[in-house]
Amino acid sequence: MPAPQFHLTFGELLGAEPGTPREMQQAMADEPIYTRLGSIFHDLPYYGNMVLMAIRYGLKRPAEESFWGAQLHANRPADFVAHYIASARTFEGPLSRAERLALVGGLISHVALDCTLHPLVNWIARRDSALDGVSESHHHRLTEKYHSMFFHLDRFGEDVIGSLAIRRRTVITKASSYLRRNAESPIVQFATGTMGSFYDRAPKPREWASWVRSFRQFGRMVSGPMARRNSFKLRTPAQREHYFQSSDFDFYDFWAHSLRMGRDLLQLGLDFFDAGQFDDTARQRFIQASRIDRKNLGAPSGEGLPALPAQTTAPDAPSELPAEVRRVA
Ligand SMILES: [Zn+2]
Description:
mainly alpha, 16 helices, 0% strand, globular, binds zinc ion
């Protein structure tokens, strides 16, 4: 389970980053809800059952698996991005150009962050799992939580976890509710239709809308004083060195790549969207230029990223991937 608050923040920051196409910036600023939806699109399926998720986390069990989460991350992920952009352009429902671009910009931010930070996250999780025998996926989740926390502290002076701001930011559709599976129908059609036309099946509209609702419940759950107290307890110099900046790595060396890849991809994505040519050749050209990992956003190759010390322990089988997907990937 990646840290969702970090994906939300990265989507926002990338949209305001100098050097990104002006029209993308404008769209992502004008349509913050769809920017956020795009930035969390890949991870939404992990928000199946919030109660279960909290319990597993508390018990340090491996992170929950999700069929759709695994598909989105590890079943031809670069092709899916090309497909999603094509779908955002050609979708016949009533979405404005700015809404479409915000959906694209958000999604691009998710992919750029996964591709550039997961190699570091996986390295830390593997190191810690070898030390204490707890599953790599638990450490994966923990590492991402610390990355997010220290980043938010450095950048904004406070963690978004344990603040009311996270409640607003986990609203990712324009119609939304804590209690009902509520989302405007064009966006439900876009999301499930885009998945259905790429994979051989699609989540039901009700299922997709239930992820949106759970995500909002998650926002409420981590906005309270308990989460805040916990966040204060975690921010020690020792943890900072363990997870964020040490003699082995510096988070910000990877972060620089996140921004660079995100910027490049926003331009490339906008050009691809505007060209309106979505045949195989055009898609392959986009994928080639994008440098998005073609196999697994959860365990990308890390090509071109800062080197990390060699590890002797073999990695766990990537926990997010059910057997059938592992074969595909
Ligand atoms: Zn992801």
